[in-house]
């Protein structure tokens, strides 16, 4: 009897183990989520990105769905909580995705026009007579638009290169300050809802590509009164803990896409043009050194304005370290 019970128990254990293993064997790939910061409306983004994501899905063999972050913070938090696996970030948001989101830079975009990098700009309505000199008077008569707090061209660059060195705090300088994405800022200035706003040359290029009546009217009503130094092209970031085999598939797709002279490569480059990039290039976290430098310059300028000796020393040490890393980084 005891031998029969032991045999029955063993059979039940084996049966249970077999049942437990079956779902794992039948489990299908969960797919990837590709994060895209919606500096434009999601409908426009999906039209532009859809063909690229479809090609990626075919290449890597698992579903790829988009995550349209309404703010840079949303995209960072999505990666942090593993709601997205990779994506196209701005330099500032990419830095935060690496710092707080468990990400790492693996590629970067390129300018389809051939020149590398872009500029932050301040735009005003054409013919209204608002110059940079008048803007910087800080007489609280200007309704001003800025980017997201994590925007490189919309916030960090103008603060580091224009406002902070002059001791200007936008909230105390202008009548109102609103934060919006690049597309919204362009339309707001072009339609006269704002007197001035930050933006970037890539966003203006994208609007020109749209070539809609509203886009043409908006661009025709704008003029640029300030440009930042050149900012590096945007980074592509994936989760550092992503499966190495999946990383290899993604890399194979990304770095071969649009490369070559075949009819398929020509088609792919046309797809890339829709998202305003040429073929991707290899990159790593050293790509973020320039935006770290912008950040440190802003911190140093702010500490000097406050007479904060400890803050100045800390920011200067950070700036020196960043510049040492830049000098040692591969060109």
UniProtKB/TrEMBL annotation:
It comes from the Bacteria. It holds the Pfam family Phosphonate-bd. The keyword Cell membrane does not apply. PROSITE patterns: PROKAR_LIPOPROTEIN. InterPro entries: PhnD. Residues 1-24 form the signal peptide. One of its GO terms (cellular component) is ATP-binding cassette (ABC) transporter complex. Belongs to the phosphate/phosphite/phosphonate binding protein family. This is Phosphate/phosphite/phosphonate ABC transporter substrate-binding protein. It comes from Phenylobacterium soli. The lineage of its organism: Bacteria, Pseudomonadati, Pseudomonadota, Alphaproteobacteria, Caulobacterales.
């Amino acid at each position: 009897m005891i031998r029969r019970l032991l045999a029955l128990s063993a059979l039940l254990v084996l049966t249970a183990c077999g049942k437990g293993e079956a779902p794992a064997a039948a489990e299908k790939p969960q797919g990837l989520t590709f994060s895209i910061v919606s500096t434009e409306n999601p409908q426009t983004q999906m039209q532009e990105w859809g063909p690229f994501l479809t090609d990626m899905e075919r290449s890597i063999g698992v579903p790829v769905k988009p995550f349209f972050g309404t703010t840079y913070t949303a995209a960072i938090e999505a990666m942090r909580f593993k709601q997205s696996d990779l994506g196209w970030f701005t330099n500032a948001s990419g830095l935060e995705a690496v710092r707080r989101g468990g990400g790492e830079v693996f590629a970067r975009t390129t300018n389809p026009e051939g020149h590398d990098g872009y500029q932050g700009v301040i735009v005003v309505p054409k013919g209204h007579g608002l110059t940079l000199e008048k803007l910087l008077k800080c007489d609280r008569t200007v309704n001003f638009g800025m980017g997201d707090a994590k925007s490189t061209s919309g916030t960090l660059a103008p603060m580091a290169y224009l406002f902070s060195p002059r001791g200007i705090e936008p909230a105390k300088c202008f009548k109102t300050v609103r934060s919006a994405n690049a597309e919204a800022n362009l339309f707001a200035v072009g339609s006269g809802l704002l007197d001035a706003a930050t933006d970037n040359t890539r966003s203006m290029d994208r609007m020109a590509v749209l070539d809609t009546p509203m886009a043409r009217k908006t661009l025709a009503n704008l003029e640029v009164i300030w440009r930042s130094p050149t900012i590096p092209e945007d980074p592509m970031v994936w989760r550092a803990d992503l499966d190495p085999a999946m990383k290899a598939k993604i890399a194979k797709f990304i770095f071969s896409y649009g490369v070559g002279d075949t009819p398929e490569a020509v088609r792919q480059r046309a797809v890339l043009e829709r998202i305003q990039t040429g073929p991707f290039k290899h990159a790593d976290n050293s790509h973020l050194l320039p935006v770290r430098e912008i950040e440190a310059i802003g911190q140093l300028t702010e500490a000097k304005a406050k007479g904060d000796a400890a803050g100045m020393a800390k920011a200067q040490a950070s700036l020196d370290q960043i510049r040492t890393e830049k000098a040692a980084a591969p060109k």
